[in-house]
Amino acid sequence: MAQEHPYVFQSGNYEGLSVEQVFLLDPIYLARLYQNSFKNKSSIKNPNQLQLAIESLLEKIHGIDTTKDCLYCKQAKVVNFLLPDFGPVTNGLLCCDNPICREELKSARSGELHAISDFMLMVSYMPRPQAQKIVGIFKATHKNYQEAFA
Ligand SMILES: [Zn+2]
Asked: Which residues are registered as beta bridge partners of 18?
């Protein structure tokens, strides 16, 4: 059972909202805030309340069930998406964790496989249009994700 670290924003655009509410509204904002918080070196050793709250949110995201079947074996649920070396990320470049399916996807396009559930760590350093596509992949493959934060 993940430890809860409630956090409510005290200022800014999302004043009065919890980390989970901001995640539902603007996950990219939250991902960037988390990334930027590590510019302060002392917070790496001693994470602040916001970082702890975001870390328990990330743990929760990992626990959300995937709702989409693998496009290759059509048996397991998708786990990975392909970040292409060239061109846009799309909802069609997904596979489960079976090595055969992973190989099939990798041979379809040159690029790197990433766990969909790690999307928050990736979108923080991407241009917003690409980050939005990756958030879209998470939403399309975890149709009930909002229930985890209800
Ligand atoms: Zn598969």
From this structure: 8
Q: 89: CA distance to ligand 1 center in Å?
A: 19
Give residue-wise pLDDT tens across range 6-41: 899 999 999 999 999 999 999 999 999 999 988 887
Report yes or no on 132 lying in a domain.
yes
Q: How many domains does the chain have?
A: 2
Are the C-beta atoms of residues 139 and 145 closer than 8 Å to each other?
A: yes
134 within a domain of the structure (yes/no): yes
CA atoms within 13 A on the CB side of 42: 1
pLDDT digits (tens, 9 = 90+) for 39-70: 887 777 788 899 999 999 999 999 999 999 99
Task: List the 111-115 sheet strands across, edge first.
Answer: 94-95, 80-84, 111-115
CB neighbours of residue 129 within 10 Å: 9
Which residues line ion ligand 1, judged by CB < 5 Å?
A: 70, 72-73, 76, 96, 98, 101
Measured in angstroms, how far is the CA atom of residue 78 from the centroid of ligand 1?
Answer: 7
Q: Which of 63, 94, 115 is the last residue of a domain?
A: 63
Q: Tell me: do 25 and 53 sit in the same domain.
A: yes
